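Look over what follows to help learners.
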Amino acid sequence: VQLQASGGGLVQPGGSLRLSCVVSGFTSIDYSIGWFRQAPGKAREGISCVSSSDGTTYYADSVKGRFTMSRDNAKNTVYLQLNDLKPEDSAVYFCAAEPTEPSLNFEVVVRRLRELRFAYWGQGTLVTVSS
């Protein structure tokens, strides 16, 4: 299983970016995807995830209302739209995948996101928000 994140860059406060995560190696779509970030000197945090079944999403309070996650199963790609960016959003952003049965309660996936317990990780993409 491989995950390839891209789309990071330098953006001014209030600006937008769209991150992409291409997933390969799964034989089905039974996996959830999470986005995580880690700022210099800070712990990694889970900020968003999408279910494997119906596209249900979760957002941490720090990004709710500004970030939007979507999933295109036909392209094996997950997106994270970052709007109204703030300097405190500067971090390396990672995507990760967790095999999940469609019947799994999404709250379990959210808990795994918060605990950073996703099985497969991609390399990060750097987002810098600065004027």
In short: The first strand starts at residue 2 and ends at 6.
